[in-house]
Amino acid sequence: MARPRSAHVQEVKTALTARLRSGFAHPGGRFLSTRAVAQRFAVSYQTAHRLLAELENEGMLRRQAASGSYVPGKRAALRGAQLIFHPRARRKGSFGAHLLELLETALTAQGIAWVRSWPAEGRAPRLRTDHYPVAWECPPSIHAAAGARRFALSLNDRPPVGLGGTYVDTVTTDDFSGGACAAELLKERTGRTDGFAVLGGPADDPRSLQRIAGFRAHAGVTRVAHADSWFLEAGREQAAGVLAGKPTGIFACNDRLAEAVIDHCTAAGLTLPPLVGFDNAPVAERLRLTTIGIPWRTMVSEAVLLIAARLRGGTDPARLISLAHEPIHRLTA
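Predicted structure:
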C-alpha cells in the first residue's frame, strides 16, 4: 500500500499547477526541469520526476525525452521584428535616426526580417501578431505588448514596473551614472568642483532629470535651465540664460542642446566655456564635441541577439541589459 503523500509534496504539486494556470506559462515554452523542481522546492529527484509525470498525465505538461518539459500548445510563429520608433527618428542627424539605421543594417546582415512602424502622436501603432515589437521612445507600444502578455524589446529606456515588466526585454543605459560621468569630465577639464551650469531637456522628462541628478551629485551647480524639447531650436531659447552667469563649465543633457550653446557663443562673440554633451549623436563628431556617449553599436548588437532569441521561440524571463557609457574626448568644445 502506497504511503500517503506528505503535505509538503502536495504543496509542491499545487504550486506547479498554479504556475501552469497563471497565464504566464507560454504555450510551447519550456517548463521547469526535474532537477530545477527538486532544487527549488527541496524534494528528491524521484519525487520531482513523479510530480511532472502526473502533470503530463493530466494534460498540463508535454514532456520530451532528453529535452525537457514544455507547456502544451503551439508556439506563436514570429516572422520578424516590428521596429516602432518615435517620429523624431525621421529627423536626419538625430540619434534616433542613427539608432534606427544601425539596427536595420544589423538585422538585415543577420537575415532577420523587419518592418518599420511610426506611431501617431501619443498613440501606439497596431502590434503585428506575427512580429516581435521593438520600440524606441514609444511607451504606449511597450505597455500594450506587456498588457497582452507578449514579449517586446525596449531600447534605451526602462521596462514597465510590475508584472508587465516580466515580458519586456530592455537594452539601456543608466542616465544618473551618465550625468555623474559628465561631472567628472568637467571637473577634470576645469580643475573646479562647482560653478557649473546645466542645460537640460524637458522638465518632465525622466532621462533629463536623472542626468541632472547624477551631475549634481558629483559637482556644484549654480544654474539649471530646461529646454522645452531636445531639439536645437529649443536649446537656443535657453542658451543665453545658461551663459549669463559665466559658468565655469556647462553640461548639456544632449548633443543638440550643446550645439545650441556653441551657436549662441559664436553668434554673440563669447568665449565658449568647457562644455560636455550627451548621446554622441552624429552632430557631436561634426562639432568636435566632448560628450558622454551612449554605446549605440553595442546596444544594437545586444538587441539583435535578443531579437534572434525571441524569433527562435525563446520564452525565458525578460532580460534587462544596462550598458556603461563611453566618455568621448574631442579636441574642442
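Summary: The mean pLDDT is 90.
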